[in-house]
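Annex B. Sample input.
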Amino acid sequence: MAEQALKIHAKNRGKLATLVTTPVASKEDLALIYTPGVAAVSLAIAKNKSREFKYTIKGHTVGIITDGSAVLGLGNIGPQAALPVMEGKAALFKIFANLDAFPICLDTQDPAEIIKAVKYLAPVFGGINLEDISAPRCFAIEEALQDLGIPVMHDDQHGTAVVVLAGLLNAAKVAGKKMANLKVVINGAGAAGNGVTKMLAGKVADIIVLDSQGILCSKRADLDPYKQQLLKITNKQDLAGNLATAVAGADVFIGVSKPNLLFPEHIVTMNQKPIIFALANPTPEIMPDVAKKAGAFIVATGRSDFPNQINNSLAFPGVFKGALAKRATRITQKMKTAAAQAIADLVKKPSPTEIIPGPFTPDLVNAVATAVADNT
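Annex B, continued. Sample output.
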């Protein structure tokens, strides 16, 4: 597959090109789309800036912003190497939501400079998708851009969280468990772990979050401010220890961390009908066959070659389509929760091997967009 991917990218020199939507076949056409005709459009917008949504690309355009610091599972590979991934993201926006997205790879990893750059670029876009920016810098960057006047979402956090919630709603239903009674373990306190924790908080009985040093608890003196925030909404019993301590008696394991961290001996200590979301890519925290053999009732991964793929591509096209349709200024928790429910509802008869729809499910994007728009 690697060789094929290199060939197709070389053949087409990437995946994107611009398209002129207004025919230009004569001097008269040129006069309308450029000088002198375009001056009337500029003057109209100068008098009322909101008219840019009527006369320009702004209303259907998303800026995909990265610094290349946390690209896929490849790590800090830089803005040039991040470009093919951002092009792919832009392609998904177009294919699934018919939104025009531009990949913008910034040659800085200074949060203040990234914030400044996005603010300077904002007049072009109806929304900003922050992508593949490492934690904890990504949290401060997203927070600083919430008053930009257009929706700004870090997809690694919130897109992932929306799809995890959607999958968990159906998994709980299939397992005969109530969401409000679930004890959930989230292994990973980075961008995805942060987003998933905040999405599930208040919807389940308790959440225990772990980073590479163990359970987030009051005995830890090494927690940064963002992990301290997570601690306020998790670990009601203030447990300390490692993953083995966390998963004992748990209903759900959600891995957004590293390969091969969950073992069969962990699963056998969990509650009846354990639900395993092993989302590390490309190698999950535990392989599905191993988890099933150990007693897992439902297993989901981030991979397309196993059942129950939890992938943020199910969420972000519809979320932005709905937000842009209503000219939302932010993407709220209410909008994200509605998006998750819409995704879950598309699986009419959920089963252990089908708790989540696929990216080509008919009406997926429209269902999510409608849910987001109705909750704006």
